[in-house]
Specification:
Blueprint lengths: L13 E3 L5 E6 L5 H11 L8 H9 L3 E8 L2 E13 L2 E11 L8 H15 L4 E7 L3 H9 L3 E10 L3 E9 L7
Parallel strand pairs: 5-6
Antiparallel strand pairs: 1-2, 2-3, 3-4, 4-5, 6-8, 7-8
Length: about 180
């Protein structure tokens, strides 16, 4: 289930991280599902982590863009985004960026984000929206460093108890990340 139409020529498949490790970012494939479910379950608590069936249907949707990050032949993170039509404009809705703890703060999340952002741009979009728990300070910092701005607070978004920030990033023609 590789979505080659989303893979844009000129985006590097391989990038050296800050500590000289080599990270490969590629489109997700059908046989990645088990590993992506494992990573999501480690990155998020029960009730917030996505059920396998939902993740599977999301990954098979033609409106989805999914990328995986590979270090030493092991998937260490992934990003999933849906492209939606809003007021005749295409908008990316970032569903998740999951990076295992041992791969964080190495640039893996930035590589994943840059890949999906460019794919949104390639599809004619110039905006990505997301929701993030008000309690997830590391993720909020990460998104702000990528150029996201807080647009509002969504009460009881997670588990019907935890509020979320609605954040958004816009760009003119070419994404800046």
């Amino acid at each position: 289930m590789q979505r080659s139409q989303d893979w844009i020529p000129g985006i590097p498949y391989v990038s050296a991280l800050e500590n000289a490790e080599i990270c490969t970012v590629r489109p997700e494939q059908l046989d990645d599902l088990d590993r992506l479910c494992e990573i999501d379950a480690v990155c998020f608590p029960a009730g917030i982590a996505y059920p396998r069936e939902y993740l599977s249907s999301l990954l098979s949707s033609p409106t989805s863009i999914a990328r995986v990050a590979v270090l030493d032949e092991t998937i260490v993170g992934f990003a999933v985004l849906e492209v939606r039509e809003r007021a005749l404009k295409k908008v990316g809705e970032l569903v998740t960026i999951d990076v295992l703890a041992e791969a964080r703060r190495k640039g893996v999340g930035q590589l994943l984000h840059a890949s999906v952002e460019r794919a949104v741009s390639h599809r004619g979009g110039n905006k990505i929206r997301l929701q993030v728990s008000v309690e997830n300070e590391a993720a909020i910092r990460f998104y702000k460093q990528l150029g996201y701005r807080t647009r509002g607070r969504i009460p009881r978004y997670y588990l019907n108890t935890i509020d979320a920030w609605w954040m958004e990033k816009k760009w003119k023609d070419e994404p800046k990340s």
